[in-house]
Amino acid sequence: MFWRLFIYRVKVLLRNRVTLFWTFAFPIVLGLLFNLAFSSLDEAGQLETTSVGIISKNNEKTEAFEKVLHSIKKDGKSIYQSKRMNQNQAAAQLAEDKIAGYYQIDDEDVSMSVSQSGVPQTIMKEFLNQYVQRTAEVETLLTSGAIQPQDLSADMFVEEDFVEEVHVSENYSIKSFYFFTLVGMSIMYGFMWGLKNANDQQANQSSNGIRLSLIPKSKLTVSSANMLATLLVFYVLNMIILAVYRFVYQVDFGDRWSYICLVYFLGCLATISLGTLIGNAFSKLTYQQKLSIGLSVSMAMSFFAGMMGSQTVKYWIDQHLPLLGRVNIVNVISDSMYQLFYYESLKPFYQNLIWLSGFAIVFILVNVFFERKVQYDSL
């Protein structure tokens, strides 16, 4: 009976065209738009050296910043040529187009000024965004004690080690950075499948739920078969999406494919379970109302993960409210992909795996609690 339910559920899921569109076709189309929008940014290596100015108000921070800036190279040649100057000199050279822009480094922040919009200026901005994020992650790791200071300095910010181990010089890809967040959002859409499961299992929500409640099998057997079928379908769909991103859109995800597949599996399990939880917890609402709740949560998580041009918000959260970033499934998935691509050490990645596993376990246990206690009156 279990496998009959499983096969039946797979057939039902594959006939749901609306959910298939939003969880399969939509991420592929959105990925195409990302590819068209961000591919040109990865042509930095084909650009001639970009001259930038630096206004320093903190010598120690400036030296660290310049070391990272100069480590981005193509064929052994640094993409950026920097020169320290004062405010008046920077403004004058920027007005005369002698520099693409300038960075201002003080005790609290690193800011950037440009006079026009172009590929060099866009690359400067993206470099600054990632530098700020990396710095925030370093501070978080130091605070948590996950990595010792000497390990971080050797692993990330010292001359060739930064370029070789973090893969910034040869594999540095702005497009990949944005696609990592897109991966998180597309996996987050798995809540739709879980929500559909909950809706089809509840007798007060659908005719299918009425029929399932009458069969001589426990609710746990039915929900387990539905969950396994949904996980299989959604995971396979995401593997196809990943293949499209990698081989059609030429997105570089690195070479740690076993870990990437594990992130996908745990992410799919967690988001499907979350969708089922939304369906079980808000059983008195209509399906469309529960779907709206799930979409709102997904959009909020995507925004705080930097999906919609909100990288500054994401970096601020990582630095000041790290727990908020940890409970954001989209952020945890995108950070996991980011860490697998850039980091040699897997310690931060393992922490994210623990969080994803924890989400899945908690959601499943709460769903079991809801499904065991639900009862329907016989009329």
TrEMBL record:
It is a multi-pass membrane protein. Keywords: Membrane, Transmembrane, Transmembrane helix. Residues 18-368 form the ABC-2 type transporter transmembrane domain. Pfam families: ABC2_membrane_3. One of its GO terms (molecular function) is ABC-type transporter activity. The chain crosses the membrane at residues 20-38, 177-195, 225-245, 257-279, 291-309, 349-370. It is found in: Membrane. PANTHER family: DOXORUBICIN RESISTANCE ABC TRANSPORTER PERMEASE PROTEIN DRRC-RELATED. This is ABC-2 type transporter transmembrane domain-containing protein. It comes from Enterococcus florum.
